[in-house]
Design brief:
By secondary structure, this protein is of the alpha+beta class. It has three domains: 36 residues; 161 residues, Aminopeptidase (3-Layer(aba) Sandwich), CATH 3.40.630; 44 residues, no CATH class. The protein is built from eleven helices and seven strands. A seven-stranded mixed sheet has the order 1-2-3-4-5-7-6, with helices on both faces. α10 links the parallel β4 and β5. It is globular, with a radius of gyration of 28 Å.
């Protein structure tokens, strides 16, 4: 910058301006990622907030795979029948028995929340993880105990790669579920939203992360309305749905293609 100063004061002022401009330029050149993050946060605050919620609460949501079938049933059925006293069986829920065929077609999908057993009061760390060196220091009785634990958990006595993978998977549990069924006309039915008692509450973020996942999926695929049915006794669920923009509907307001379950007595709709 070439500038002719008329006096000493003006010269000092120009020098100060040059220093400030150079500092800003150097900061932008040295830390472009910081500047990019700032711009991204200003333009897309909702994306930043969603990412933070997931990271802070360590919510691991994945799309359903058939290997989760048994765990999903073990989560859903006790909540329905034991916790809320809903008189319904597995056989009366075709959507539960065939998740892939019911949910994962058209614009529908199904998700599960996975957590390590230790986070949900599950089994302690498996003793089958004891290394070979540690095994040598154990007594014969202790070694047999370790082997028995490994067989019971993994289903194999050897130390093959497949057994180790099975063992790691056995320590991960499904603690939450949600699904949307494509019912046509740019509408979906929200079904099977359940969260394990140990993973509930605003602080865990599990329920909200599940709902956000389902809503985002629907918006991206042009779904216009999400409709759901529930029971009278699930008061906390009612408040949660209403907080997330669902409005109560009468049965006669439901679309003819909505799959009504015989135990459902309360219905909600959310227009996206």
């Amino acid at each position: 910058m070439r500038v002719i100063a008329k006096n000493i004061d003006e010269c000092a002022k120009i020098a100060e301006q040059c220093c400030e401009a150079r500092s800003e330029k150097v900061g932008a050149e040295q830390f472009p990622e910081a500047r990019s993050e700032q711009i991204g946060a200003e333009q897309f605050p909702e994306a930043r907030n969603e990412k933070r919620v997931v990271e802070e609460n360590n919510v691991n949501i994945v799309e359903f795979e058939e290997r989760f079938q048994k765990q999903v049933e073990e989560l859903v059925l006790p909540i329905q029948t034991q916790e809320f006293g809903v008189k319904i069986t597995r056989e009366e829920q075709p959507d539960l028995m065939d998740i892939k065929g019911t949910f994962q077609r058209g614009v529908g999908n199904f998700w599960v929340v996975l957590r390590d057993c230790e986070e949900t009061g599950g089994p302690e760390k498996l003793r089958a993880n004891v290394s070979a060196t540690e095994r040598e220091s154990l007594s014969p009785t202790e070694r047999e105990s370790v082997s028995a634990t490994g067989r019971a958990t993994v289903g194999e006595a050897d130390c093959s790669v497949a057994s180790q993978a099975h063992e790691r998977e056995s320590r991960t549990r499904v603690v939450g579920t949600i699904g949307v069924v494509d019912i046509g006309n740019n509408q979906v039915a929200l079904k099977k939203m359940f969260v394990h008692a140990d993973a509930r509450g605003k602080s865990s973020g599990v329920a909200q992360a599940l709902m956000d996942t389902a809503k985002n999926w629907c918006r991206e695929r042009g779904v216009e309305s999400i409709i759901l049915g529930t029971t009278e006794r699930m008061f906390a669920a009612h408040r949660f749905y209403e907080k997330n923009g669902f409005v109560e509907q009468q049965m006669e307001q439901l679309p003819p293609n909505f799959p009504i379950v015989h135990v459902d007595t309360k219905f909600y709709r959310c227009d996206l």
